[in-house]
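Exercise: predict the fold of this chain.
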Amino acid sequence: MKRGTCLLAGGLFVLGGAGCATVPSGGQVVTGKPAERAERVDDPYVRLIPVKPRPEWGPAQIVSGFLAASASFDDNHHVAKTYLSPQTSWNPGLRPFVTVLSSRIIAPQVVKTAGDQATVRVTGDELGTITSDGQYTASPKGLDTTFQLAKTPQGVWRITGMPGDDKGGLLLSKDDVERAMRTVNLFFFAPDQQTLVPNGIFLPVVNRQTLPTQLVQALLAGPTSWLNGAVRTAFPPRTRLRRGVHIEKDVATVDLSEEAHAGNIERMSAQLSWTMRQLSEIKRWRLQINGETVIAQDMEATQPVHAWEGNSPDGQVPQGETHENAYVVGASGYLGTLQGDRAQPIVTGPGGRLSRPAIAPDYQEFAGLSATARQVYVAAPVTGAPTPHVLLTAQEGARFTAPSWSNDGTLWVVETRRDESWLWVRPRGRSAVRAAHWGLGGREVLAFRVARDGVRAAVIARIDGRPQVQVGRIAHAPDGSLDVGSFLPVSSELQDAVDLAWRDYNTLAVLGRAKRDSQTLPFLMPISGSAITSLGVGSLGEPRTIAAAPGAPILIGTRSSGKEQVCRQRVPSNSYSPWICPTAAKDPSYPR
């Protein structure tokens, strides 16, 4: 029995041709790799060739073989179905519900036998689940379930009952998922119908040739449950692919059903371009509806897959941006910009002396905190000596997080104290109001940052006594109220997080301490939940704040030997470049 089980667990493997997914170490997959850097989609992958059941195998070996074979998506799980009795209904399909385990179950136990009937128990450590729409959610707990088996008239054991009421789910190990699935981005529109928002999913790969078709079909199916209601799609209801995505000489043809005639050609093109650019074999593509080529405005019949940059989730990213685009509080105590490595004051008077200043993306106003973080101030313009106005005053025992701006000029800030928090939102020209629905009301929040797409928000919240990085979504209700919630952890690798900022639409820059470290250090944390990476080398003193922006160097506000300093890497393009701290200043920030 032991020898057969090991054979099944190992299986037979051949090389295929797509990249593998990474099961998040923490929470929910909210977005995958940035489309232009989705290198793992095209990485080689190991394909499982499942083994059929053998007549001499007992109940435990049959269950072990079934679990191993179910990791292969070939031919609609044909081999795995041979482990079932003819009467057993089980049809996972191409988008199954998956329970992800830390490792493969290799030692099922026969806990009951009665003649031609048997019950087999399987146990393991569950990491999380992947729903049929591809959304991963962490749910660490123990797995303890049973399979029912019976002998057929031919005298061989077959599965007659699946765990619980599951008629189509899979029990896969983390390694199985990373081999058989890909983390890919689908792109949908923010409520402004201009900015795209990435929606990362786990997508099973049957074979590399069908991946373009699977990807477009997933896009047409709409956002996952996590983003549903927070984003929009340009594709009219019931729009489908008339045939598979055809690729010839780097040019893909996407032929949509007649329902697409009711959609906006330009917005549909933007969604398709950003989604398909993850596949290296596609350089240009052609949009057809009912077999007829349609042409988007200012485009040719075949459009570049890297078009529609104006819809980027990060907005327009300046070329060659340097640390001099950042704002700091200089040694004089006033808000300034960096000229070389020197802080040049641009705002004087009381308005220039705010703590944790944040400049609006359009540079029309700025916000900051009082020295005790118990008041939020706003002021305009971002020059001269403007008079700051008190926007909010905290309750007794509470304080505010650093202000955060979204690209539409809305100001966001969290009021918090032990085990409580409230989200305040101030659209430009209006008063600040509490968000009607705030998912972290029972938590202390240490940092809050809205993504540039305006639909996602990253926080550091105190969970079970430890600061944890989480990401939530922002949904607008029909009555205009906000629902900011569904916060889930991004990674379990980092503990004692101090501050964070959005590096780009896929990555957070976080100050925190990894489990192996004794000091607070800067890390890049992919929203996909993939492994975090450390930044730079050298001493940083006591890092307190971090600033980041697409294409710009990461800046760290630190205190060393009693002095406030702003640090940057000597060569920002090199993640291993040493940190240097040439600027006497604090609280660095970027206006976007």
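Check your answer against the key: The chain has six helices and 41 strands.
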